[in-house]
Amino acid sequence: MRGKGRAVCLGADIDTDVIIAGRYLRTKDRSIWAKHVFEDLDSDLAPRLSGAVIVAGKNFGCGSSREQAAIALKEAGVIAVVAPSFARIFFRNAINIGLALIEADLGCPEGETVRFDLESGWVELGGKRSRLRPLSPHMLDILRAGGLVAYWRVKR
């Protein structure tokens, strides 16, 4: 699975409450979540996420186990998230909805192109290629299918 997008740089310890604030969880309207993603961090960030690869610090997705955080990112048009580490529940929620996560420690020049190949195990930013922590073949199958629900539909 390959992809590319513009780098949007964030810091470490981005928690699920920062990704999508609890006040927006009364609705199941995913377009509302996408519109308000990262609102309390940077109110101008959501419109810049379409076609973006978030490059963040360690422990991305910490906090509550809300799956809406991963959904909000995908609905906002985020292609992938690159971070040195992810909170484990967020990690599975993201894979389950088909959002690619890349465990790698990169610097982040804002707006540079990020390229990645999950099967070959590399990510490239600013012309520098790095190895990434590989995903299991099963997780790659889930991502290729577009998420866990789509994966199980195909497996039937």
Structural write-up:
Strands 4-3-2-1-5-6-7 form a seven-stranded mixed beta sheet, covered by helices on one side. With 156 residues, it is α/β, with parallel strands linked by helices. 29% of the residues lie in helices and 21% in strands. It contains six helices and seven strands, in the order βααβαβαββββαα. The longest helix has 10 residues, at 88-97. It has a single domain (2-155), classed as Aconitase, domain 4 (Alpha-Beta Barrel). The protein has helices at 16-19, 30-36, 68-75, 88-97, 137-145, 148-155; strands spanning 2-9, 52-55, 80-83, 100-103, 113-117, 122-125, 128-131.
Structural class: alpha/beta
- What is the CATH architecture term? Alpha-Beta Barrel
Q: Over the alpha carbons, how many angstroms does the gyration radius reach? A: 15 Å
CATH class: Alpha Beta
Spatial arrangement of strands, main beta sheet = 4-3-2-1-5-6-7
Largest sheet: 7 strands, mixed
User: What's the shape?
Assistant: globular
Question: In percent terms, what proportion of residues is strand?
Answer: 15-25%
How many strand segments?
A: 7
Q: Which spans have pLDDT < 50 for at least 5 consecutive residues?
A: none
What is the fold named in CATH at topology level? Aconitase, domain 4
Instruction: Assign a percent range to the helix content.
Output: 25-40%
The number of distinct structural domains comes to 1
Encode the helix/strand succession as letters.
Answer: EHHEHEHEEEEHH
- Which whole number gives the mean pLDDT? 94
- Name the CATH homologous superfamily: Aconitase, domain 4
Q: How far from one another are the termini?
A: 22 Å
Individual helix count = 6
